[in-house]
Write a structure and sequence with these properties.
Layout lengths: L24 E6 L11 H10 L2 E11 L6 E7 L21 E4 H10 L1 H6 L3 E5 L7 H13 L3 E6 L9 H4 L4 E5 L5 H8 L4 H12 L3 E8 L7 H13 L4 E8 L5 H6 L14 H13 L6
Parallel strand pairs: 3-5, 5-6, 6-7, 7-8, 8-9
Antiparallel strand pairs: 1-2, 2-3, 2-4
Helix pairs in contact: 2-4
Bound molecules: iron/sulfur cluster (SF4).
Catalytic activity: glycyl-[formate C-acetyltransferase] + reduced [flavodoxin] + S-adenosyl-L-methionine = glycin-2-yl radical-[formate C-acetyltransferase] + semiquinone [flavodoxin] + 5'-deoxyadenosine + L-methionine + H(+)
GO molecular function, one term: 4 iron, 4 sulfur cluster binding
GO cellular component, one term: cytoplasm
Length: 294
């Protein structure tokens, strides 16, 4: 089937990708087209991961209007330290479930689409899982992309802020930053992790003059509390002009079958998505803080 992989559509059902507001168009993708590095024993692989000579990839695709401007190659890295209750991709949680891809193979793949990216003002996006979990690989690919004149975008929760150096930040043009909740208690409930690294990463991006599209998943009764939304807005204010807009992503149940397939107890089994009225209220809250909201 060449580059096409008939199964890839079911491997990644990203919240935003399935959102009606975004007419995403996935052109091709999957896990095909990458040679796995051969002859690496476990120790070699760990070393190569640390240096960024290889990365573990869940899947990739070429899309429009989803993960940043223009036509983009989005690479979904394996591994995530968080355990969001509303995760649509629990199959990306374990790094070892991904496919090892060499830095050279990834750069070659990007180079192949370079003209398309430039013609559409698109580029490369790293998503996940948590893209920052493989910071050496991601940042080296970004450096190569910048040298080719290609736009770069990091889709992240910022949870691993400390793993991403100032030098690495230099090669990010745009960050899709998930601000999953506005206070520590709700953040922990929603993700199992802590909020502060997200704030720290957003502030570092802003200081470095980078652009941010904030993403906030709206789950009735979990993240929808008025005060929680206010606190998310206040966090976004700390990033100042760096924030170009906020995506309010309505919760949906498209990820449920994956939890079942993986036999992981799904905490939002009977959770409903937000009503139009709730969505309008949250949108207005962010707008009252001066943000453009999608
Ligand atoms: S950050 Fe949350 S939603 Fe994203 S992959 Fe990790 S657990 Fe899933």
């Amino acid at each position: 089937m060449g580059e096409q992989d008939a199964g890839f559509r079911s491997t990644k059902q990203h919240m935003l990708r399935e959102s009606k507001e975004y007419r995403s168009q996935t052109l091709m993708g999957g896990l095909s087209g990458f040679e796995s590095p051969i002859g690496l024993d476990r120790r070699d692989r760990i070393r190569a991961l640390r240096t960024g000579d290889i990365g573990f990839v869940h899947s990739w695709d070429i899309n429009t209007s989803v993960d940043g401007p223009g036509t983009r190659m989005t690479v979904f890295m394996s591994g995530c330290p968080l355990r969001c209750q509303y995760c649509q991709n629990p199959d990306t949680w374990k790094m070892r479930d991904g496919k090892p891809v060499t830095l050279e193979a990834m750069i070659k793949k990007i180079d192949r689409y370079a003209d398309l990216f430039k013609a559409t003002n698109g580029g490369i996006t790293f998503s996940g899982g948590e893209s920052m979990m493989q910071a050496p690989f991601v940042s080296r690919v970004f450096r190569a992309a910048k040298e080719m004149g290609i736009h770069t975008c990091l889709d992240t929760s910022g949870f691993l802020n400390k793993d991403y150096t100032d030098e690495m930040i230099e090669d990010i043009d745009l960050c899709l930053l998930d601000v999953k909740s506005g206070d520590e208690e709700t953040y922990r409930k929603v993700t199992g992790g802590v909020l502060q690294p997200t704030i720290d990463f957003g502030e570092r991006l802003a200081k470095a003059g980078k652009k941010i599209w904030v993403r906030f998943v709206l789950v009735p009764g979990l993240t929808s509390d008025e005060e929680n939304v206010e606190n998310v807005a206040k966090i976004c204010e700390r990033f100042g002009d760096a924030v170009e807009h906020i995506d309010v992503l309505p919760f949906h149940q498209l990820g449920r079958p994956k939890w079942h397939e993986l036999r992981i107890p799904y905490p939002l089994e009977d959770q409903k998505g937000p009503s139009q009225a709730l969505r309008a209220r949250v949108k207005e809250q962010f707008e009252n803080h001066g943000f453009k909201v999608y």
